[in-house]
Amino acid sequence: MSGLAQARPRLVLTTGEPAGIGPELALMLAAGGDLPSGTVAIGDPEMLAVRARQLGLQVRISVSQPGEALPESGPGVLAVWPVPLGEPAIPGVLNPANADYVLQTLNVAVKACLAGHAQAMVTAPLHKGVIIEGGYPEFTGHTEFLRDACQVSEVVMLLATDRALHGQVPGWQGAGDLRVALVTTHLPLREVADAITVERLTRVARILETGLRQQFGILAPRIGVCGLNPHAGEDGHLGNEEQTIITPTLNALRAEGLDIHGPLPADTLFTPRHLAGVDVVLAMYHDQGLAVLKYAGFGRAANITLGLPLVRTSVDHGTALDLAGRGQADPASLKVALNLAATLAGRKRLG
């Protein structure tokens, strides 16, 4: 490799559920020359070649192995590290026989990043249900899988709209500028309250504050925290988690020096006046925060996992089985996630 090529961060892109839109998003970006230089996809080369033909995309699949030099990037070339499918993939048709394949693509990406063969990983969407049906009943999603694969005790899911992905944006400026992190991620709603503990909330807040400083360059992050219950519990009349767990924990974190606000009712915190005073909203559960985030910037946002020993970003959407194989999927979010991964990887190397 030349010195210039070595200086570019290498990104590994897992192509996700083979029956979904992930493979074709990678192909669309490759066809248009929109993949960051140094990007290599992980997936089944034959499946990718077949999908390209189905969509009428002129893309050459170039196969190599982790640690080998990649070909020069450019329009019409997709570099691939191969992982074989369990069975042929049909767009829009889930097959549990390919659960192992999806998880193997993730394992290859993690090992490559930890070994220094790549500086960041980007994930196309997978389908949790078919992986569970494929023999992995404990599987709950990318975030938790990567936590366990990297052997860390806690990670934080952060989603941000395109403008808010850059640390130079000082907090909320208007619609489309929003960062949302989660205390709990992929849990049934009836399990959420029990999962919100002093220990978890403390770990998540510390990881979030550190991640915003180190990865986003926000020197003094201001964190707004949602309550769990309607009206943040209404002084205990609508639930007491705010009184017994959340407020005492936030007080302790403030005593440590974190600039943390709340707990506030979610329908209060997600309003312009309150968003203007924070850099990120910490929501208690998945839909409390992400419904607002996706309304504000769906298709222009990325998912970042904080707390890992590697850089990981992802798209803000699912597998879109109804669009798979039709050439109608929008690669905008994947492009945002790839460009963000390149930026964060570059910062990490310089740091």
From TrEMBL:
<keyword id="KW-0170">Cobalt</keyword>
<comment type="similarity">
    <text>Belongs to the PdxA family.</text>
</comment>
<feature type="binding site">
    <location>
        <position position="142"/>
    </location>
    <ligand>
        <name>substrate</name>
    </ligand>
</feature>
<feature type="binding site">
    <location>
        <position position="312"/>
    </location>
    <ligand>
        <name>substrate</name>
    </ligand>
</feature>
<keyword id="KW-0862">Zinc</keyword>
<dbReference type="GO" id="GO:0051287">
    <property type="term" value="F:NAD binding"/>
</dbReference>
<dbReference type="Pfam" id="PF04166">
    <property type="entry name" value="PdxA"/>
</dbReference>
<keyword id="KW-0460">Magnesium</keyword>
<keyword id="KW-0479">Metal-binding</keyword>
<comment type="pathway">
    <text>Cofactor biosynthesis; pyridoxine 5'-phosphate biosynthesis; pyridoxine 5'-phosphate from D-erythrose 4-phosphate: step 4/5.</text>
</comment>
<dbReference type="GO" id="GO:0000287">
    <property type="term" value="F:magnesium ion binding"/>
</dbReference>
<feature type="binding site">
    <location>
        <position position="143"/>
    </location>
    <ligand>
        <name>substrate</name>
    </ligand>
</feature>
<dbReference type="GO" id="GO:0005737">
    <property type="term" value="C:cytoplasm"/>
</dbReference>
<feature type="binding site">
    <location>
        <position position="286"/>
    </location>
    <ligand>
        <name>a divalent metal cation</name>
    </ligand>
</feature>
<dbReference type="GO" id="GO:0050570">
    <property type="term" value="F:4-hydroxythreonine-4-phosphate dehydrogenase activity"/>
</dbReference>
<feature type="binding site">
    <location>
        <position position="186"/>
    </location>
    <ligand>
        <name>a divalent metal cation</name>
    </ligand>
</feature>
<keyword id="KW-0664">Pyridoxine biosynthesis</keyword>
<dbReference type="InterPro" id="IPR005255">
    <property type="entry name" value="PdxA_fam"/>
</dbReference>
<dbReference type="GO" id="GO:0008270">
    <property type="term" value="F:zinc ion binding"/>
</dbReference>
<dbReference type="GO" id="GO:0050897">
    <property type="term" value="F:cobalt ion binding"/>
</dbReference>
<feature type="binding site">
    <location>
        <position position="303"/>
    </location>
    <ligand>
        <name>substrate</name>
    </ligand>
</feature>
<feature type="binding site">
    <location>
        <position position="231"/>
    </location>
    <ligand>
        <name>a divalent metal cation</name>
    </ligand>
</feature>
<keyword id="KW-0963">Cytoplasm</keyword>
<feature type="binding site">
    <location>
        <position position="294"/>
    </location>
    <ligand>
        <name>substrate</name>
    </ligand>
</feature>
<keyword id="KW-0520">NAD</keyword>
<keyword id="KW-0521">NADP</keyword>
<dbReference type="GO" id="GO:0008615">
    <property type="term" value="P:pyridoxine biosynthetic process"/>
</dbReference>
<protein>
    <recommendedName>
        <fullName>4-hydroxythreonine-4-phosphate dehydrogenase</fullName>
        <ecNumber>1.1.1.262</ecNumber>
    </recommendedName>
</protein>
<dbReference type="InterPro" id="IPR037510">
    <property type="entry name" value="PdxA"/>
</dbReference>
<comment type="subunit">
    <text>Homodimer.</text>
</comment>
<dbReference type="GO" id="GO:0042823">
    <property type="term" value="P:pyridoxal phosphate biosynthetic process"/>
</dbReference>
<keyword id="KW-0560">Oxidoreductase</keyword>
<comment type="function">
    <text>Catalyzes the NAD(P)-dependent oxidation of 4-(phosphooxy)-L-threonine (HTP) into 2-amino-3-oxo-4-(phosphooxy)butyric acid which spontaneously decarboxylates to form 3-amino-2-oxopropyl phosphate (AHAP).</text>
</comment>
